[in-house]
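User: I'm putting together notes for a lab meeting next week and I want to include a structural view of one of the chains we've been expressing. I don't have a solved structure, so I'd like a prediction I can at least talk through. The sequence is below, exactly as it appears in our construct file.
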Amino acid sequence: MTATTIPEMFLSVCARYEGNPNKIAYTHRSEGAWHPLTHEEVRQQVELFADGLLRYGLAPGERVGVVSENRTEWVVVDFAMAGIGIVDVPIFPTLTAHQEQFIFNNCEATAIIVSNAAQLRKVLEVWDEMPTVRLIITMNEHLSDNPRIVSMQSVMERSRAESTPQERRTKFTTLASRVRSEDLLTLIYTSGTTGNPKGVMLTHRNLTANVDSALHTIDGTETDSFLSYLPMCHSYERMTGHYLAFAAGASVYIAESIESVAELMKEVKPTIMTSVPRLFERIRARVLGAVERDSPIKQKIFRWAMKVGERYDEGDRGVFTVLQRAIADKLVFSKIRERTGGRLRFFVSGGAALNHEVGRFFRIIGLTIVEGYGLTETSPVISAHRLGDVVLGTVGPPLPGVEVRIAEDGEILARGPSIMKGYWNDDAATRECIDADGWLHTGDIGEFTEKGHLRITDRKKHLLVSSGGKNIAPGPIEALIMQSPLIDQMMLVGDAREFCTALIVPDAEAVRTWAEKNTVKYESQETLWTSPELHRAMEADINKLQRELPKYERVRRFAVITKPFTVENGLLTPTLKVKRKAVLAAHAETIDHLYERPE
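Assistant: Thanks for the context. Below is the predicted structure for the 599-residue chain, given as structure tokens.
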């Protein structure tokens, strides 16, 4: 790919499929039906909306907020604003009204585009406190009679009434050609766990460089089908499931919700899918849970198949093992793969570290997970596995064009064309993140393997320091203990404490299965989760899993939390990462109880 701006990439791909009415670019499932758009249809809508925005008084360089779930209108909005030099500011639709107020005031947004009535209500709640916002555009129709609130369809109808298709095409092409690679494309506000979010300034060159590097790493083609369910407002899905997929000429299927993904995989039959580790953990847990409910003979077949798969995975290619692997695949592994649609070439995992055992489970059953690593500030991918060279426990070598080195204190530093321009109106934070030599300090601790693969050990700021002065990286310990099928979520506690403890949320389905198998009686889920029988079972799992850990890293006590960590209760970020400080505050009393008795 030679494009250095997003509109240049967009027009180039549209031209590639001009006159091909059967090639789907994007399709969105809504209310049980798919709504496909060809490249030409996307281009026409982009040109209409871009022209309409200008007729409503918006201008290049202005910032425009976008508050929407994934849908084809999101794609049209994104390409339209990029083509006429407007800087989009996409945010998670799960944010509160006051969080939106801070972001849109901080970037001095002149307009906000919302998806539906629920998102409009949040904006209206704080509109009076956002003095620069003069226009609201709704993706859904008929949401307001206020003349300053117009639908996306009305914007496009105005353009259609006041211009011809050729005029719109010429106008968009001309304006797109004026966009420069170093122009600001987007402001993405970090979903950090503390304090107010910072606006990450990403240029057209930042994103196109990352797309170009990723295309040389992740072998996407026009015959591929992407299933997109992660929020497109996040840099990870925006680059991989949106820009990269479009640049490759693949068809993108946009899921209507995270909850629908399991069924959609069987319907869409994707060949590539981006995800976060949480999905893989859930798939594995569901498979193992289903096995526990199967007949004894089926359980025996599954365990035999996994042992054969483990031998094969460890490099045993003897005739007997190869034959057994083929039988295991037919009896067990192929049936699991069918749940993903049966055509999947590989998953892409990012956003958090993939548990080694989870990765190995997928590899044994014949599903490849390509793991990558990056930050919003790096557009976002820094490194990723290559197909055929997936090393579990690492995130692959750096992408082409990206330099990576390890600082003396173990911090990962990155430099290259995909590194952000800086933080919006925050020079001090920019200087703190990017040094004088252009190295971006990621805040992650890591190392290189002998073969040049990057291994992440933890977040620098997440390191716990015990009262005895021991540095403890919680990530690997949490990943280890969450191998227990009884545990769904966990957070290690131990900063400035004598020993480590944990807050644990049980896996509801696995615990019910365990209770039935062990004839544990209970009146409700809460009484089961807080029962001494479950506590002892979890304790046994934890002690077994952590026996190889140094004593200062072992969990000595734990508390079961009966309400899961969620985005809605403020304990997870929108990308499903635990907000450690928020959890510590929400469960402070419980944590104090864990340390009341001396060791």
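A couple of points you could mention at the meeting. The chain is about 40% helix and 20% strand. Residues 6-179 form a domain with the Rossmann fold fold (CATH 3.40.50.12780).

User: Perfect, that's what I needed.
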